[in-house]
Structure formats: C-alpha cells, structure tokens
Write a structure and sequence with these properties.
The complex is a heterodimer of chains A (about 60) and B (about 270). With about 60 residues, chain A is an alpha+beta fold. Chain A has helices at about 20, 50, and strands at about 5-10, 30, 35, 60. In chain A, the strands form 2 sheets. A two-stranded antiparallel ribbon of chain A has the order 1-4. With about 270 residues, chain B is α/β, with parallel strands linked by helices. Chain B has a single domain (about 20-270), classed as Rossmann fold (3-Layer(aba) Sandwich), CATH 3.40.50. Chain B contains 9 helices and 10 strands. In chain B, the strands form 2 sheets. Chain B has an 8-stranded mixed sheet, with helices on both faces. A two-stranded antiparallel ribbon of chain B has the order 5-6. In chain B, a hairpin with a 5-residue loop joins strand 5 and strand 6. In chain B, helix 1 crosses helix 6 (about 175-190) and helix 4 (about 105-110) crosses helix 5. The N and C termini of chain B lie far apart (about 55 Å). Classes of the chains: A alpha+beta (about 60), B alpha/beta (about 270). The interface of A and B includes residues 51 and 54 of A.
Chain lengths: ~60, ~270
C-alpha cells in the first residue's frame, strides 16, 4: 500500500527507538539518535509509530 | 490522518522533559484524544496534579490546569469539583504521588465517589527523585534505596480503588495506546469516581536496575503480561501467575455521587 508520508519532527525526537521496534513493516530505522524513514513506500498506515511515540515526534500523513 | 495533538498543547512546550522512551508521553497523547472524543470545553476542564514525573503532564496541556502539593492532587480536585460541579475534573499522578504520599487523599476521594477521573501512571518507582522504591515496586525488584531487592509486597492500585469505593476502575498499559483513550473516555463519561491505572515504563530509574536492556524490552514485557479481564475468566490461576488484568475491572452506576449528596445538604440547610 502506498500513499503515506511519514514526518519526523527532529526537534522532538529523543531517539528511544520505540517506533522502529514496533513498526510491523520495518519502515523506520535509527540513525544513531534520530529516526529516519528509508522505506516509506512499505507503510500500511497502522499508526503504531504515531500512537506509541512518547515525544510527539512522528506523524503519518495521507498523501 | 495524522492526529493534531499540537492544538491541545501550550505553544513552545515541546519537547517535553520526560526521558527518552518514558510512557507518560503516550498517556498524555491518550488523554488528549480522550478529551477530544468527549468534546470537552477546555475552559470547563480542570486537570489537577501533584508532584512527580507524571504530575508534570498538566503543564503541557491547554486547559485549566492546577499543579499542587505532593500527593494532594485528589484533595485539590475535590475542592475544584465542589466549588463548580459543572467542571470536568481530571487528576493525573504517579504511583508514589497517588498511593504513598497521597494515599489518604486517594482512598477518601474514592470513598466519597466524587465525580472525577483519576489517571494513575504506575511506573513502579519514584522516577523524579532518583529511583526510590514506591508502594508499587514489585517484590524483589531493585531500586536506588533497595539495592538488594525490595522486600515489601505491592499495592494493587485497582484493587485498592475498588476496596475504597471508587465506582469505575480500569487498568491498561502504555503499550496499549488505543485502550488508554477508550478507558479515559469511559471514565470521563462515568458519573462518580473513575480510576484508570496505566502501567508504564521508567527506563531511566527502574529499567536499567532491573535487567531491562532497553525501553522496548519494557514495553514488550507490559504487552506480554497484560491479560484482558474477559479472557482471564477462562484461565486457570496457574496461567495467570505473574500476569495482570486489563480493561474495565469494576463499574457501579448505583452508588450516589458526592456533589449531588452535598447539594441535598445545602438544600436542607437553606430550608428548601
């Protein structure tokens, strides 16, 4: 499924890696202390990353 | 699709002070979604807290907020509710704030069955002051003041609330974010004392002393040990060893609510 745009708000991200570990499709990756989105086309919009991010740092947008 | 949390947060307050991976942020998101679902007027919503990591929560929210003395959140909230029964009162606090220092206020707010929603964020420890053990630290767990393991048995906050007389008691964990807002919505809509216990993680002061390699391990542990109350009815005591029940644990709609009872006293005194 395509059509998702993942926005990482770098200012808020503390690098806890919860979103990376709980993503069922392995869309996200850690770049030392910051989340990156190397595979946005795999996103199924389950919203787990947005719901579980304690730092208000990741958002799943419809494209 | 992306949820607009920012409209409920005071401008310039993010990033918040909580440590990387702290579950309180997940609970705050759930609370914001619940407040939006209930369409609460922020001018008629009071969010009260005591002292502690979890009690920093109201400072971020754009509503009528009250940050009070340690453990006294329930007492202040009772005052707010009695002064203006139209207010929706939500109390946020941690396990130490709610059951140790504020234990008395907590049980008496439950006993009175006053219409408020108490969200207890139970992270098993006093996080802000450096990891001292709290009444919810599991037996045998290590804290900065119990380096050889905690000998004390724990307080089960939900059972304490039911025993003290709260009329809506539910439990969930930070690893079940959709359940957090679902239960808080039910708590807000319930007329009477609603206690929602959210088990969450403290990677900084609890996790690293208790062999959790990362915050993700703590979240997975919460997920693994949570058993929905309905499913638990079909399980044996052996299978439930070391697990905890989640979902709505107790609800009573019969017991009279305190503000209404107090209004009757006012009416009597005024000779109506």
């Amino acid at each position: 499924m395509s059509g998702a745009r993942l926005e990482v708000i770098e200012r808020n991200c503390k690098g806890c890696s919860i979103c990376v570990e709980f993503c069922p499709k392995n869309v996200l990756e850690m770049d030392v202390f910051l989340v990156t989105v190397p595979r946005p086309e795999d996103c199924i919009k389950c919203m787990q990353c947005e719901l579980l991010c304690p730092d208000f740092a990741i958002k799943v947008h419809d494209e | 699709m992306a949820y607009d949390y920012e409209k409920s947060i005071r401008p310039g307050k993010l990033p918040h002070i909580w440590c990387p991976g702290c579950g309180h942020g997940i609970v705050m998101k759930g609370l914001i979604r619940a407040m939006d679902t209930c369409e609460l007027d922020r001018a008629k919503t009071s969010i009260v807290s005591g002292i502690g990591c979890a009690s920093r929560l109201p400072g971020y929210l754009d509503a009528c907020t009250l940050h009070t003395a340690h453990g006294r959140a329930a007492a202040f909230a009772t005052g707010v509710k009695l002064a203006d029964p139209e207010m929706t009162v939500i109390v946020c606090g941690g396990d130490g704030d709610g059951t140790a220092i504020g234990g008395n206020h907590f049980i008496h707010a439950c006993r009175r069955n006053i219409d408020m929603t108490y969200v207890v964020m139970n992270n098993y420890i006093y996080g802000m002051t450096g990891g001292q053990f709290s009444p919810c630290t599991p037996t045998g767990a290590k804290a900065s003041t119990t380096p050889y393991g905690n000998p004390d048995p724990i307080f089960d906050i939900s059972k304490l609330a039911i025993g003290a007389g709260a009329t809506f008691v539910a439990r969930t964990t930070a690893a079940h974010p959709r359940e957090i807002d679902k239960l808080i919505v039910q708590g807000i809509k319930h007329k009477g004392m609603a206690v929602i216990e959210v088990l969450d993680d403290c990677p900084t002061t609890y996790g690293r002393r208790n062999k959790f390699r990362s915050v993700v391990d703590m979240m997975k542990e919460l997920k693994k040990n949570a058993v929905p109350a309905k499913a638990a009815a079909k399980m044996t005591a052996e299978q439930l060893q070391g697990k905890f029940l989640t979902g709505v644990l107790f609800q009573d709609t019969e017991k009279p609510e305190y503000c209404e009872m107090y209004q009757e006293v006012i009416n009597k005194a005024q000779g109506a």
